[in-house]
Amino acid sequence: AASDVYKRQPHTLSTDFSESEIKGICKSWIDLYSEYSGAINTYFDSHTNLHTRPASLIKNYISVIEALSHNLDKKKTYLDDTTKNARLLIDMISKYDICEQDATKLKQAFLLVKGTALKSRLSVFLESIKEYLPNGFDDDFVKKIINTRHKITHPKSKQEPYYSSNEYPRLAAELSLSIHIYLLKSVGIKSEIIRKLVQTRGLAAGLS
């Protein structure tokens, strides 16, 4: 049971930090909260509300990630192959056996988007904390997240692949864990402490 996991795992204590580290963390938290108070409030309100449905948690957590990743990397560009038109282009490239070099040029011409697009924001967000994440938080995960949110908002959507409703609780837990990691890293928590807390939360949520 989750409660047993918390009992077995050692908790982080104030003695794990020096006085100067605590002051630095507090200042970083104040600065972070002043810039992203809306997103942070949404995260903790959602995370602590036991009555919120997994589908709502997923939408809320994605909105939080969008906000937190707003300034991560606006200058980068990415190939967004999650849209309907993108899939049509990829199907045409495959159908007409276009060589790899020309296929790359076509994708860059029609699928390139700025770093403010949702796919790129999620990718950059997860990339910034990948050292702490379990396996599986990759491009396929990002695509399925985007399609799943669209499916939740528009139930008749046929964009695939997406997570089924019985997978929503685990997906919500994974998104929540990633936000938790990002917040800890952003305020300067030491890596070994983040890893210990991630292990505790991951095991309690059934993640590996």
Explain what this protein looks like in three dimensions.
The protein has 208 residues and is mainly α. It contains nine helices and two strands, in the order αααβααβαααα. It has helices at 2-8, 19-48, 54-68, 84-95, 100-110, 118-127, 139-153, 168-186, 191-204, and strands spanning 77-79, 112-114. α4 runs antiparallel to α5 (100-110). The two termini are 15 Å apart. The relative contact order is 0.15. The model is unreliable at 1-7 (pLDDT under 50).
Count of individual helical segments: 9
**How many strands appear in the DSSP assignment?**
2
Major beta sheet, strand line-up: 1-2
Radius of gyration: 19 Å
Kindly summarize this structure in a few lines.
The chain has 208 residues and is an all-alpha fold. The protein has helices at residues 2-8, 19-48, 54-68, 84-95, 100-110, 118-127, 139-153, 168-186, 191-204; strands spanning 77-79, 112-114. The protein is globular and about 65 Å long.
List the main descriptive attributes of the protein structure presented here.
about 210 residues; mainly alpha; two-stranded antiparallel ribbon; 9 helices; about 5% strand; globular
